[in-house]
């Protein structure tokens, strides 16, 4: 094979779920690059990966045709051992030559720091790309992770998301010898299921793209997306309308179709009497249609669909879509009218028959726990001076929150849970504050999602998410790996986002304890141990670390220093972190942090506190002036810093603490902590322990990275 080779690979299969394709395409790229780099075949040309519903593909226009030869130098015995006094090879030299496969005459000497040694240079010939790629491609495909996969050719075969129907694997246009599932690699790909040829010979990556395009397959996702966007935009503007923005749906239709074509449809304007949320959900969630809006933002009686064909001949496809949507809208209107024949609160009793989790009981049980916790939160806020915190409104919102789960609308359109409850509450005359709280209860769904719009909704969302975390952890449903059936990671992230954005005063540990109490007092009487409460706190704070670092721009050591000090009111914690950030470059702060790190290490090496800690520091045991000066100055600083801390002036408090640096430096310069006299040693350790404990209540200084380590 020549110096470089064109590489093309395609797996053809039954339709892959559209939501999986973007991640799998990226993963395939990482896997193939890993192997090509490992075997030293990758040059400067990138590996491209792409895919469509019935195929995953990869190409690289230039990889090495063969691995470079590798030269290895093998070291043998010293010259003095390899040859005798008259220069004749010894048995050691002969054994080394036999081992390398070279005659002694071909061996050489190399000078090392230990003297002259016998050596041999071996040239290991590189393998051909063909041989290597044939060997690693099946392994690469097996490494792709799928949410679900199956054995399609027996229990010892390849696991894959769908049955594999064909494989293309070419180097410089020549087929590789390999098999995936029941399919042997060749040079033939397959066009569009209805519009293309079933057997298309290809010779290169460029040829592959062009021939598939001619057979109604746009294999590159970006090409499909551009086509969809252009056609949707043209159809919408032609009617004087705009597309309801939906990035998730755009991605979905991009990966649902091999040759996407947009069509415009309409529906009876009478359905516009239904709330926009319901109409959009029916169009988007069930039919994959884009809603259209008028210039004033109201919905138009039209929709855009993306079909996997080149055109809609005679409008038959459009008519079919309109007919299906009409039936779905009729169902939604029926549910809307039927559900509201009784009040939303009347559904509450039915929740006792709907299981939330086998060990945690029904949704009725969950509502009772959430009401208790939500009321407690509102009481805390009102007591702390937030007058808009209404216990009555929070209690009513929590009472109604899950009622829509047993409505016909949510049974049919599950993605509308919460939203439907809020719409029904508003329609039935509940206070707007309560209706919006019910509507927003599941927010935020992610870091980019908005939080509930009012305080009542924020209390409800916090209580609901905290109850889920505490309950699931209590019965052993802790997320592991990719398994998180109750979305606990999202719940924890939601708690963090709400608290940081609203700046609401909430002790997370106290809220966990209160939620645990509600669980213990419930009909299931599930106890939550202190260890589990700590596990839940750590789980939430781990998400807080991520948010504060990635979104608030705080340094990891500033975050760790504050959280290690036991700060779990995130609003207060952020103020402490900002105070550290403001003064950490002052002359005393980071050097003192280094000293605190030294103190912690000394105390850890000293062993358990019970072995050395005295009831209190004894002044009569001070043997140097440095000990007394540190003790006296620390007491003064502690009093001043505590006053500043209680007033929330953390920057001033930290500056006072940093001012201890001269006394701490002097102590370590003049005092031997681990003194020979056991009592003196214990007294000095007790002094340092008190110092560390007293001045780690705002932040744990020992967590601050040294200046040379960066942030």
What descriptive keywords fit this protein?
711 residues; alpha+beta; seven-stranded mixed beta sheet; four-stranded antiparallel beta sheet; 14% strand
Largest beta-sheet details: 7 strands, mixed
Q: What's the overall geometry?
A: flat
How many strand elements? 20
* Helicity level: 40-55%
Structural class: alpha+beta
Sequence stretches where pLDDT stays below 50 over 5 or more residues: none
**Average pLDDT, to the nearest integer?**
92
Individual helix count: 25
Radius of gyration: 35 Å
Strand content: 5-15%
N- and C-termini, Cα separation: 51 Å
In short:
By secondary structure, the chain is α+β, with helices and mostly antiparallel strands. Strand 7 and strand 8 form a beta hairpin.
Please provide a written account of the structure.
It is a single chain. Helix 10 crosses helix 17 and helix 11 crosses helix 14. Strands 1, 2, 3, 9, 10, 11 and 12 form a seven-stranded mixed sheet that branches. A four-stranded antiparallel sheet has the order 15-17-18-16, with helices on both faces. The chain has a three-stranded antiparallel sheet with strand order 4-6-5. It is built from 25 helices and 20 strands. Strand 19 and strand 20 form a beta hairpin. The mean pLDDT is 92. It is of the alpha+beta class and 711 residues long. Helix content is 48%, strand content 14%.
């Amino acid at each position: 094979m020549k110096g470089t080779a064109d590489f093309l690979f395609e797996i053809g299969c039954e339709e892959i779920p559209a939501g999986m394709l973007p991640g799998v395409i990226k993963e395939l790229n990482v896997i193939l690059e890993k192997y090509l780099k490992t075997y030293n075949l990758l040059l400067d040309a990138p590996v491209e990966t792409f895919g469509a519903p019935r195929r995953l593909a990869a190409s690289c226009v230039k990889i090495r045709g063969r691995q470079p030869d590798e030269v290895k130098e093998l070291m043998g015995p010293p010259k003095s051992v390899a040859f005798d006094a008259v220069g004749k090879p010894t048995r050691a030299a002969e054994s080394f030559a036999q081992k390398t496969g070279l005659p002694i005459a071909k061996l050489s000497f190399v000078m090392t720091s230990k003297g002259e040694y016998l050596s041999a240079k071996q040239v290991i010939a590189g393998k051909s790309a063909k041989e290597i790629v044939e060997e690693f491609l099946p392994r690469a495909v097996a490494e792709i992770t799928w949410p679900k996969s199956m054995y399609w050719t027996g229990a010892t075969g390849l696991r894959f998301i769908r049955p594999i129907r064909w494989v293309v694997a070419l180097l410089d246009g020549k087929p590789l010898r390999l098999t995936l599932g029941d399919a042997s690699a060749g040079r033939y790909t397959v066009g569009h299921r209805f519009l293309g040829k079933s057997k298309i010979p290809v010779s290169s990556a460029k040829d592959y793209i062009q021939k598939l395009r001619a057979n109604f397959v746009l294999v590159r996702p970006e090409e499909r997306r551009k086509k969809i966007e252009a056609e949707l935009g043209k159809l919408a503007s032609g009617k004087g309308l705009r597309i309801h923005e939906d990035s998730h749906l755009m991605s979905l239709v991009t990966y649902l179709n091999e040759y996407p074509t947009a069509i415009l449809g309409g529906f009876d304007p009478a359905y516009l009497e239904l709330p926009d949320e319901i109409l959009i959900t029916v169009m988007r969630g069930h039919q994959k249609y884009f809603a259209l809006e008028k210039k004033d933002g109201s919905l138009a009686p039209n929709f855009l669909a993306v079909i996997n064909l080149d055109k809609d001949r005679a409008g038959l496809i459009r008519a079919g879509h309109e007919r299906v949507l009409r039936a779905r809208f009729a169902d939604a209107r029926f549910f809307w009218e039927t559900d509201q024949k009784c009040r939303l609160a009347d559904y509450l009793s039915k929740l006792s028959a709907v299981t939330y989790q086998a060990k945690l009981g029904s949704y009725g049980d969950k509502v009772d726990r959430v009401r208790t916790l939500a009321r407690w939160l509102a009481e805390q806020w009102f007591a702390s001076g937030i007058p808009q915190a209404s216990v009555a409104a929070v209690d009513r919102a929590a009472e109604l929150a899950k009622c829509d789960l047993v409505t016909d609308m949510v049974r049919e359109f599950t993605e509308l849970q919460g939203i439907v409850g809020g719409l029904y509450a508003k329609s039935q005359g509940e206070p707007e504050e309560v209706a919006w709280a019910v509507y927003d209860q599941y927010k935020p769904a992610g870091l980019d999602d908005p939080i509930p719009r009012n305080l009542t909704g924020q209390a409800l969302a916090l209580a609901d998410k905290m109850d889920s975390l505490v309950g699931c952890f209590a019965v052993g449903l802790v997320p592991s790996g990719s398994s998180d059936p109750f979305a606990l990671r999202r719940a924890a992230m939601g708690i963090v986002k709400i608290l940081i954005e609203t700046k609401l005063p909430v002790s997370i540990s106290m809220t966990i304890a209160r939620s645990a109490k509600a669980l213990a007092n419930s009909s299931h009487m599930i106890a939550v141990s202190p260890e589990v409460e700590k596990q839940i706190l750590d789980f939430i704070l781990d998400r807080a670390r991520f948010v504060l670092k990635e979104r608030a721009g705080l340094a990891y050591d500033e975050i760790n220093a504050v959280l290690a000090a036991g700060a779990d009111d995130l609003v207060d914690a952020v103020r402490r972190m900002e105070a550290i950030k403001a003064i950490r470059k002052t002359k005393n702060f980071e050097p003192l942090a280094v000293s605190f790190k030294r103190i912690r290490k000394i105390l850890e090496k000293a062993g358990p506190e019970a072995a050395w800690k005295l009831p209190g520091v004894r002044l009569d045991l001070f043997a140097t002036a440095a000990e007394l000066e540190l003790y006296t100055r620390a007491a003064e600083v502690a009093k001043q810093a505590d006053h500043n801390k209680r007033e929330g002036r953390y920057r001033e408090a930290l500056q006072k603490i940093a001012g201890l640096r001269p006394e701490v430096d002097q102590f370590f310069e003049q005092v031997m902590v681990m003194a020979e006299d056991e009592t003196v040693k214990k007294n000095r350790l007790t002094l340092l322990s008190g110092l560390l404990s007293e001045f780690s209540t705002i932040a744990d200084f020992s967590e601050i990275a040294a200046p040379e380590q960066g942030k």
